[in-house]
């Protein structure tokens, strides 16, 4: 049985390779890939890898590789038709009925691709010909030189009404085919169909395989409307299911571990020229669920980059509301808000890659954007307004369909509400004579012990939120040490402490796997090191020496030396690989808690600064000052951990 190529592509697009493979192989996240034991050979060390972005799997032990169809045939012994039938059912697609009519449709579909390819060549030729001078001048002014024009196949549609129609007709292409591909304007009252794109710079729009399926045109007339014009919906082009530059960005997104979404064609091209080829754009509409699915196949947390003005924020809020019911494990969004009055093209031309990286590096998590919108310019002085705000957050959390993630959003909102309005527990402490709290949060000098938290392995549901709401417990000498002073050699000491503890006590990696994976680290070098540690988690018999050797073989030896050279870390007894894992674990828990708290406060500070910039009210200023005071108090916190060090004979408080 012969299946149409478009049908097979649709199955592959709907079913991630990891989802199909997981039915046969226990997979574990390893950086941007998944890994597991080979289903074809007996082995103890994983050599089987899955890459959802490439839609492929690789088995290095047997030398086999392929797509989802190859995997099912190889592991289940099915024929190709049987495999397609099974996977189509999994993807929710009915099997196509192969008839003369469907075969003709596939042939016709291929011919439509050829029509659009000929149109793209026509536009490219005219950009570089006599009629394209004005278009070339415009592109030069936008910083899009000849090499860029060729890379993105930019073209020009002449102003003459029948230029494209006549050129394609001369190649034997029918008017009906031109109409079906959206190249001509036609109708009952139009006697002779004519070119849709006239006197416009043309940007070809391609599918994920790189085939031209539509065009976008930018007017060269100062008063021309619309400014941007896209092809209409056609058998090949559905604008809500396509991303501009998708076929180029896929590889770059995999290599760089992320994808950036901007609003327009020129923004994408300028970002690519500035060193960010992992960039795409929707096609003149708000981001759609189908486009989100395409983004999540490229990266777990795409960054949506919006203009910093009010319209840009509204666009970000629309995307946020659309995405909330869809987010879940490995599916979220981050939001980068540009300086007011600038778009990505402006930023790329004025500040280059450094300015872009600065903005992308400060991208807000989805939860922060929710908080920003819901608190922006709102007066919370009355109980009614606070109650309405509380209810609104509850409604937002309930739109999240992933049960586990919804639980954590609810916990995070509760933590922030407690910080903003003051938790009942802290109010009771204050009533007994505790130091006064700030205007928006609990007392910045209130201390607590780990208590039951210290007796558990890792963070359980709600534990992280509780640890952020309360001041973390840190021993006196540890809080005073250089570990919590400003960064040394570009690596913050607290992050160095965590990584060095894991390096010297590998058994802790698997225990705290999720917490380590969720850490926000300051440098790409540290993040890559962390990913390698996670990839080695759970390896049987892996000790300090074995871990060090594995890391050195992977090129991390310079980073290891950097960690070990920080005397503030290496001089502490619990850093010695011979120290008890239980003692090292206590220090790790302290550092993780303090790290989460500091990161949360820094995010709050960023949101408060944005709010103050938009509305310089006393309320927003007081909120900013309160967060600054909490950060100041956090850096000097000196609370003891009861009984710490007893396991290895070190007196309590010896840190």
Short description:
With 655 residues, this protein is an alpha+beta fold.
Description:
The chain has a five-stranded antiparallel β-sheet with strand order 1-2-3-4-5. Among the domains are: 5-91, Alpha-Beta Complex (DNA Primase, Chain A); 102-237, DNA primase, catalytic core, N-terminal domain (DNA primase DNAg catalytic core, N-terminal domain), CATH 3.90.980.10; 246-362, Dna Topoisomerase Vi A Subunit, Chain: A, domain 2. Mean pLDDT is 79; it is low at 423-489, 567-571 and 637-655. The protein has 29 helices and 16 strands. The chain is 50% helix and 9% strand.
Topology:
Blueprint: H1 5-14, H2 17-21, E1 28-30, E2 33-36, E3 48-51, E4 56-59, E5 64-66, H3 68-76, H4 80-91, H5 100-127, H6 133-141, H7 146-151, E6 155-157, H8 163-169, H9 175-180, E7 184-185, E8 194-195, E9 200-206, E10 212-219, E11 228-230, H10 246-256, E12 260-261, H11 265-273, E13 279-280, H12 289-298, E14 303-306, H13 310-323, E15 334-337, H14 344-361, E16 364-365, H15 366-375, H16 383-398, H17 403-421, H18 424-431, H19 463-469, H20 476-480, H21 493-504, H22 507-511, H23 513-517, H24 524-536, H25 544-553, H26 557-564, H27 567-570, H28 581-614, H29 618-635
Parallel strand pairs: 12-13, 12-14, 14-15
Antiparallel strand pairs: 1-2, 2-3, 3-4, 4-5, 6-9, 7-8, 9-10, 10-11, 15-16
Helix pairs in contact: 3-4, 11-14, 15-28, 16-17, 17-19, 19-28, 21-24, 21-28, 28-29
């Amino acid at each position: 049985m012969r299946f149409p190529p478009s049908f097979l592509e649709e199955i592959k697009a709907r079913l991630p390779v990891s989802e199909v493979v997981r039915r046969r192989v226990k997979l574990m996240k390893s950086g941007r890939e998944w890994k597991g034991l080979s289903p074809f050979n007996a082995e103890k060390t994983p050599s089987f890898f899955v890459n959802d972005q490439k839609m492929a799997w690789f088995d290095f032990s047997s030398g086999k590789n392929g797509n989802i169809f190859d995997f099912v045939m190889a592991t289940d012994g099915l024929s190709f038709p049987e495999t397609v039938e099974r996977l189509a059912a999994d993807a929710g697609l009915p099997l196509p009925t192969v008839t003369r009519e469907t075969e003709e449709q596939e042939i016709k579909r291929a011919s439509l691709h050829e029509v659009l390819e000929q149109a793209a060549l026509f536009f490219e030729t005219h950009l570089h010909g006599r009629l394209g001078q004005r278009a070339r001048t415009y592109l030069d002014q936008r910083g899009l030189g000849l090499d860029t024009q060729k890379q993105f196949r930019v073209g020009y549609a002449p102003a003459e009404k029948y230029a494209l129609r006549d050129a394609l007709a001369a190649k034997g292409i029918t008017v009906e085919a031109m109409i079906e591909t959206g190249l001509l304007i036609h109708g009952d009252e139009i006697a002779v169909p004519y070119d849709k794109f006239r006197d416009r710079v043309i940007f070809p729009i391609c599918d994920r395989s790189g085939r031209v399926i539509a065009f976008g045109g930018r007017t060269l007339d100062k008063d021309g409307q619309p400014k941007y014009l896209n092809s209409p919906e056609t058998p090949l082009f559905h604008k809500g299911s396509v991303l501009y530059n998708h076929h180029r960005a896929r590889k770059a997104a995999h290599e760089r571990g992320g994808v950036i979404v901007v609003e327009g064609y020129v923004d994408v091209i300028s970002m690519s020229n500035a060193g960010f080829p992992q960039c795409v754009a929707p096609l003149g509409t708000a981001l759609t669920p189908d486009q989100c699915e395409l983004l999540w196949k490229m990266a777990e947390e795409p960054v949506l980059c919006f203009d910093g003005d009010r319209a840009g924020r509204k666009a970000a809020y629309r995307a946020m509301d659309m995405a909330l019911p869809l987010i879940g494990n490995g599916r979220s969004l981050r939001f980068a808000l540009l300086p007011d009055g600038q778009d990505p093209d402006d930023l790329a031309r004025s500040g280059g890659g450094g300015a872009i990286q600065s903005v992308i590096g400060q991208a807000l998590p989805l939860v922060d954007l929710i908080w920003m919108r819901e608190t922006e310019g709102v007066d919370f002085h009355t109980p009614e307004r606070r109650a309405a705000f509380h209810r609104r957050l509850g409604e937002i959390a309930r739109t999240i369909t992933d049960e586990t993630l919804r639980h954590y959003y609810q916990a995070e909102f509760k933590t922030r509400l407690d910080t903003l309005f003051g938790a009942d527990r802290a109010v009771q402490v204050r009533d007994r004579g505790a130091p006064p709290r700030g205007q928006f949060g609990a007392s910045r000098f209130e201390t607590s012990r780990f208590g039951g938290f210290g007796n558990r392995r890792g963070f359980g549901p709600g534990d992280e939120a509780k640890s952020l709401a309360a001041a973390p417990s840190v021993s006196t000498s540890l809080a005073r040490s250089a570990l919590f002073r400003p960064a040394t050699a570009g690596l913050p000491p607290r992050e160095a402490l965590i990584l060095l503890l894991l390096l010297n006590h590998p058994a802790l990696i698997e225990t705290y796997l999720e917490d380590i994976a969720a850490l926000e680290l300051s440098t790409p070098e540290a993040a890559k090191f962390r990913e390698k540690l996670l990839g080695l988690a759970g390896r049987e018999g892996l000790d300090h020496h074995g871990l060090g050797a594995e890391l050195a073989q992977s090129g991390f030896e310079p980073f290891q030396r950097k960690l070990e050279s920080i005397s503030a870390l290496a001089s502490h007894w619990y850093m010695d690989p011979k120290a008890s894992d239980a003692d090292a674990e206590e220090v790790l828990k302290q550092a993780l808690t303090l790290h989460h708290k500091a990161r949360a406060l820094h995010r709050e500070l960023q949101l408060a600064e944005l709010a103050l910039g938009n509305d310089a009210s006393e309320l927003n200023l007081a909120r900013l000052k309160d967060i600054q005071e909490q950060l100041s108090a956090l850096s000097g916190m000196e609370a003891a951990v009861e009984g710490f060090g007893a396991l290895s004979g070190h007196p309590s408080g010896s840190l």
